[in-house]
Specification:
The protein is built from eleven helices and no strands. It has 220 residues and is mainly alpha-helical. It has a single domain, classed as Tetracycline Repressor, domain 2 (Orthogonal Bundle).
Length: 220
């Protein structure tokens, strides 16, 4: 029997899908503790009992949102991997940073919820906590920081997580940072991408070159 989340995905115009979309926005803006099912119901324009009928309690709806976002993020990372596969590292990073920042600016609730999940606690034990290392390992392999098979080192995963945290913070902090910089949305987003390229591409490329330079020479 399909789950409520599967039913919402099968029919994007359904009430389940409408509630899910509103919940993504509200949880993304206020976090688990700041959001309420009443606010979400008002966003959709329904009675709170209708929300409970379709999704159960707040924790059930929040968990569905996290599953939905986790799956969306995984699909986007797969698209990035397909695009960058086999290219030189600098080119891979340039394309990946552009694609991921564009995607996250279009879906700000993803970055917001990831950061809120890191820094706030709920009683829910969610799949996201297990997906992050999996995502980080996949990106590390795409960037050539690890082999195609076998374990990925903690060092490689930490570097990938550092890169992703930089992107998440630029996206989640857009409103606050734009006011500090006194700039418009188009300029901010363009400069955010350029700044990420400025910081990250040289760091990863230089590290790769150093590793190659320190590798033992082939005696054959």
């Amino acid at each position: 029997m399909p789950s409520p989340l599967q039913k919402a995905r099968q029919d994007p115009e359904s009430m389940k899908a409408r509630i899910l979309a509103a919940a993504r926005r509200i949880f993304g803006r206020f976090g688990f503790h700041g959001a309420t099912t009443r606010i979400i119901a008002q966003e959709v324009g329904i009675d709170i009992s209708t929300l409970y009928y379709h999704w159960g309690d707040k924790n059930d709806l929040y968990q569905a949102v996290i599953y939905d976002i986790s799956d969306d993020l995984g699909r986007q990372l797969a698209r990035v991997e397909k695009k960058i596969h086999g290219r030189p590292l600098a080119e891979r990073l340039d394309i990946a940073l552009g694609m991921m920042t564009d995607y996250l600016f279009e879906h700000p609730e993803v970055s917001n919820l990831i950061l809120l999940r890191y820094f706030s606690k709920t009683r829910a034990e969610l799949t996201w906590d297990h997906k992050v290392p999996e995502f980080a390992s996949g990106i590390a392999r795409s960037m050539g920081l690890a082999g195609e098979d076998g374990p990925v080192s903690t060092e490689a995963k930490m570097r990938v997580m550092g890169m992703m945290m930089a992107i998440y913070n630029f996206v989640a902090g857009e409103e606050f940072l734009r006011s500090m910089l006194d700039t418009d949305q188009e300029t901010y987003r363009s400069q955010a991408k350029q700044t990420l390229r400025f910081l990250l591409i040289p760091a990863f490329v230089q590290d790769q070159e150093q590793r190659r330079g320190s590798a033992p020479a082939d005696d054959t």
